[in-house]
Amino acid sequence: MKRGQAALEFLTTYGWAFLVILIMIGALAYFGVLNPPSLLPSRCVFSPELACLEQEIIGDSGGDGILRFRVRNNVGSMASFEFNATEIATDTETTCVVGPNNGVNIRSGRIMNVNCTFTGNVFPIGDKIKFEVETNYTKVGGAYSTPVKGEIYAEAK
Asked: 41-155 has which CATH code?
């Protein structure tokens, strides 16, 4: 067998194998098997001052998207909290309401319910959405506000 013929057979054989691999990868991507966002777990992460307990994203609540999460005050003393959430994909920002009594001081170790309503912004149900949450808290009797940043990544329901 001549060297040219051996080289051509080598390239042809491995060329077909390479083509089959590309077709398989394309099929996996088409059917959503290789969709990285669907493989990532939901998460809710803040600094140690706030322990995130759970989160929920409501895709469409009468034309508004809603982000809800619960955090525990781990500051070590009573403090007042303010939350602002930004949805990363659209860069939409909203001010969040803390529990039923917005602006009331929260004792150390107590849990806060936080509701963020994105007016006129509906989240596609089934999509995973990422939010950056900025928090400022002031200890009771304190004069300065301390910033805390967090991140929430979950599926809209």
From this structure: 2.60.40
Cα(25)–Cα(123) distance, integer angstroms = 30
Dump pLDDT digits (tens) for 15-47: 888 999 999 988 888 887 776 666 778 889 998
- Taking phi first (over 0 means left), then psi (-120 to 50 degrees means alpha), and beta for anything else, what does residue 76 get? left
The angle subtended at Cα 109 by Cα 68 and Cα 116, nearest 5°, is 15
Model confidence over 59-69: pLDDT tens digits? 887 778 889 99
**DSSP class per residue in 25-70:** HHHHHHTTTT-HHHHSPPEEE--TTEEEEEEEEES-SSS-EEEEEE
User: Domain limits of the chain?
Assistant: 3-34, 41-155
Single pTM value for the model: 0.71
Helix (H) or strand (E) holding 74: none
* Helix or strand run (H / E) with residue 116: strand 111-118
* H or E element that contains 19: helix 3-30
